Amino acid sequence: MAQNIYDNDEFFAAYSGLRRSIEGLDGAPEWPYLQAMLPDMSGLRVVDLGCGFGWFCRRAAEAGAGSVLGVDLSQKMLERAEADTDDSKIIYRQADLELIDLPAASFDVAYSSLALHYLADLPRFTATVAQSLVDGGTFVFSIEHPIYTAPLNPGFVTDDAGHVSWPLDHYMVEGSRTTEWLAPGVVKHHRTITTYIHSLQTTGFVLEHFHEWVPTPEQIDEFPDWATDLDRPQFLLIGARLMNPVGCDFGTASAHIAPVDPLPNRQ
Amino acid sequence: MAQNIYDNDEFFAAYSGLRRSIEGLDGAPEWPYLQAMLPDMSGLRVVDLGCGFGWFCRRAAEAGAGSVLGVDLSQKMLERAEADTDDSKIIYRQADLELIDLPAASFDVAYSSLALHYLADLPRFTATVAQSLVDGGTFVFSIEHPIYTAPLNPGFVTDDAGHVSWPLDHYMVEGSRTTEWLAPGVVKHHRTITTYIHSLQTTGFVLEHFHEWVPTPEQIDEFPDWATDLDRPQFLLIGARLMNPVGCDFGTASAHIAPVDPLPNRQ
To answer: For residue B254, which residues of chain A lie inside 8 Å, CB to CB?
Structure first.
């Protein structure tokens, strides 16, 4: 079972004060890039995995989605999501993404914002998403960038000459990382970009979009702290499509290429 | 025009002494992963862009390739490649990959080992490769990992507590990096993973393989210095396929998704 840090009072209070918790998607600077990876929502069946306060669920419904299922582990998050939602097309459900089952071929779009790095078992989750989508379905998600999650003791350092850097270590060593973010003892799971992409490809997805978010010069003028993202990316955004090889030469053309296995967990 | 550092006497002498220069592909630990990304070579027309001493050209011919064109900027490298090759299926040609033209739809496989990070103009190169391949053709290449090329002054550091890290900076700031590797003044071009993948996708490729190389425990036992690759990857290996959207729903299904533009060069 995943750690339910969002129901921790200290964490919840701090998270509720973040700009993205108050302003929603408009307060999340990576949102425009995720939005560009998503299809026209008209009539589509959407699932939001790790929906939090429901900002994306409501936006999807406003954009014409036929139905939206929002899933989260945190009861506190879901209570506010319910309170802030007045749309019968949106249903919220409490579930642990580590253990969740989803109905087969029932969604056109799966979305997940900054949740997958909390999951220990990525292959199970990716396979669950894949079987829940129709052929041609879209899976768009953001994660903390592996460069950001890799270090055992993350943090920028400034050397004697004033040079700022992000001391990277253990990038290739996958596994859990316990850090302090809003509250102590937050457990995240670091894995390489290789593993994220491989997990998609082995469950039938084709990578469509890959975007390491970085602030614009205008954003850095407004939020000078964000300039550190030029040194090390914080968010990785990925868009993939579930491909049906029938009627398409992709599956047959690549069938004779041996897959490259992911690296064993080196921890 | 690209820097011709391989024709520098000091660099050439040092490069000639590397294990991969003496033992060829068997001395390049990332080779088995590249090999797994390549199709059965029987009868295929192959181009090796940055062929160096011709190790891959000869291996491809031995594996049954119908023809192999090896291209390199360095006259010194090509002289040894010619001297070491006795196979009429292999042709070598001196050319600058920054400026090269290749005949249209003339190759089944394009290969490039550790060369693209020397090129300033990646979009031109990727487009040149794309138009030179037949539909369904394969493009497999390795590069120095962007985590490796990003820092302005790359190198591991050990802090007072004995903790070793790779001080990452300027990951999101693309552009040239002048470093010392085998000789001073070697010019490489750093770009993000986003840019590499976007360059492939905008020229008609679908990403098939993505592999951040890491040594095995057995390799680290044999070469203890390689353990630093657990902290920061050195090589990124990519395999892509040129996709003909005709007869395949990939092109039409994704047509309504707005592309995500690459970031402007922030240097």
So the answer is: 208, 241
Instruction: Tell how strand A107-113 and strand A90-94 pair up.
Output: unpaired
Paired sense of beta strands A45-49 and A67-72, if any: parallel
Please judge whether B194 and A206 are an interchain contact, meaning their C-beta atoms are less than 8 angstroms apart. no
Instruction: Write out pLDDT tens, residues B56-65.
Output: 999 999 999 9
Which helix (H) or strand (E) is A10 found in, with range? helix A9-16
Q: Chain B partners of A168 at a C-beta cutoff of 8 Å?
A: 147, 165-168, 231-232
Residue among A167, A172, A229 whose CB faces B165 most closely = A167
Higher-pLDDT residue of B11, A149: A149
Q: How confident is the model at residue A36 (pLDDT cuts 50, 70, 90)?
A: very high
Chain B residue numbers with beta carbons less than 8 Å from the beta carbon of A165 are: 151, 167-169
CB within 8 Å: A171 and B36: no
Half-sphere exposure of A136 (CA within 13 A, CB side): 16
Tokens linked to B28: 């390049």
Of A163, A231, A256, Cβ closest to residue B171? A231
Q: Say which residue the tokens 């582990």 belong to.
A: A73
Of A36, A170, A207, the CB nearest to B260: A36
Closest listed residue to residue B34, CA positions, set B116, B110, B122, B124: B110
CB contact under 8 A, B168 and A163: no
Question: Which residue in B33, B172, B197 is closest to A210 by CB distance?
Answer: B197
Kindly provide the ipTM of the predicted complex, given to two decimals.
0.91
Instruction: Identify all chain B residues contacting A247, using CB atoms and an 8 Å cutoff.
Output: 247-249
CA-nearest residue to B37 within chain A is: A257
A209 — pLDDT class (breaks 50, 70, 90): very high
Q: How many CB atoms lie within 10 A of CB B96?
A: 14
Phi, psi of A231 (to 5 degrees): -80, -40
Binary contact (A212, B163; C-beta < 8 A):
no
| Chain B nearest C-alpha distance from A21 (Å) | 25
What residues contact B83, with CB distance under 8 A and at least 6 apart? none
Q: Which token pair is B44? A: 């295929």
Q: Encode pLDDT of A140-195 as tens digits.
A: 999 999 999 999 999 999 988 999 999 999 999 999 999 888 888 889 999 999 99
Q: Is A96 exposed, middle or buried (0-12, 13-18, 19+ CB in 10 A)?
A: middle
Q: What is the pTM of this model?
A: 0.91
Is 60 exceeded by the pLDDT of residue A264? no
d(CA B148, CA B166): 9
pLDDT of residue B262 exceeding 80: no
Contacts of A243 (CB under 8 A, 6+ apart): A135, A136, A204, A205, A206, A250, A251, B250
pLDDT digits (tens, 9 = 90+) for B184-206: 888 999 999 999 999 999 999 99
Task: Give me the residue from B37, B243, B258 closest to A250, CB to CB.
Answer: B243
